[in-house]
Structures are given as structure tokens and as C-alpha cells.
Amino acid sequence: MTRFDALIGDFDKALRVVAGVASASRASPAAHAADQMLTDAEKRHSAGLMRVNHVGEVCAQALYDSQGRFASNESLKQQFNQAGREEEDHLAWTAERLRELGSHTSLLNPFWYAGAYLLGTIAARTGDAHSLGFVVETERQVEAHLASHLDRLPPQDEKSRAIVEQMRVDEIAHGAKAQELGSAETPFLVRKAMQAMAKIMTTTAYYL
């Protein structure tokens, strides 16, 4: 594949992610959860939280695509590709749940994807160890964020809760794998900057 072919492939992937076109290789965890009645307010709240989670998966696609593209060895590229494929399950599950709740994905998805792709490229350019460290820190923050959503989702919204719980399990595994492959510690200021950017994203995406 030429560099131009790769560029076209990346652009096509970005368009599909931003447009909400994703296919899951695993059945949604919500498939076996009870479909409980929710009030309109509970539906709006669940939708806001699931929209935030969907945006997180849009960003995950961009991060893994860019880090895989610029990784220096083939085994690492394959790891990023595998993790990205599992994250695409999350993308499809959260999009489906938003439709069931009668809501929509974020209107700012192009912005979220572009910003995450840039961050992933920068992380990859700092070297494989630091790129893996970025994954570890990202997954650590995402796992904490998903755990907070399990506390905030309506208790009777079993479908959303089942999706979030499986996402949390997968994110922990991705972070552990990155650590196993030889991640470097992410600097304190970078971790704080990541937390600040995540706060902006989650606050905005809840509504938009």
C-alpha cells in the first residue's frame, strides 16, 4: 500500500467514524439486559451520558488509528489495530443505545476526531514507549470516567449500564496490555492537561 493509499484509507475511516457508521464484532451487552421503563428525564440523562461515551469512542478510534499509523514496529501496529477494533464495538454499541433512547450522537464529532488524531500523532512521534504510556494514562482516566457513569446512570437503565460495564472491562485490559508492552510513565503536567481536556469534552458532549 502506498502512502497515498494509506491516506485515503485513513480519510475514509475518519468519515465513517464521524458519520456514526460502525459495525460491532461482538453482540451488544445490552442485548440480554431488561428493557425497563424510563421517565423522559431519565432518558435525557442516560442519553447525555451515553453521548459522552460515544464521543470517547470516536476519540479512541482517532487515537488508535494515528498511533498505529506512526508506530515504529509491526507488532505494535497490530496491537493498536486490535485495540481499535474492540473500541469500534463500543462505538457501535453506544450509537445503538442512543438511537434506542431517541437521541443523537455529538454534533461536534468532526472536531473531537480531529483533535484526538492530532494528539495520537504527537504521542506516537515521541516514541513507542511514550505512546504506550499515553495509552495507559488514557485508559486509566477512561476507566475512572466509566465507573462514575455507573454511579450516575439511572439504576433501572440496565441496558446502558451493561454496555458501560463491558466497556470498562475492555478499557482496563487495553491499558494493562499497553503497560505489558513497555510503556513509559506519562509526565505529571501531561496527565493534568489530559484531564482538563477530558473535562471540556465530557461537559460539552453531554449536551451537544
Which segments are poorly predicted (pLDDT under 50) over 5 or more consecutive residues?
Answer: none
Average pLDDT over all residues: 89
Q: How far is the N terminus from the C terminus?
A: 38 Å
User: What does the oligomeric state look like here?
Assistant: single chain
How much of the sequence lies in strands comes to under 5%
The helix/strand order is: HHHHHHH
User: What summary fits the major beta sheet?
Assistant: none
How much helix is in the residues?
over 70%
Helix tally? 7
Global outline: globular
Kindly name the structural category.
Answer: mainly alpha
Radius of gyration: 17 Å
Question: Explain this structure to me?
Answer:
There is one protein chain. The protein starts with a helix and ends with a helix. 75% of the residues lie in helices and 0% in strands. Helix 2 packs antiparallel against helix 3 (74-100). It is mainly α.
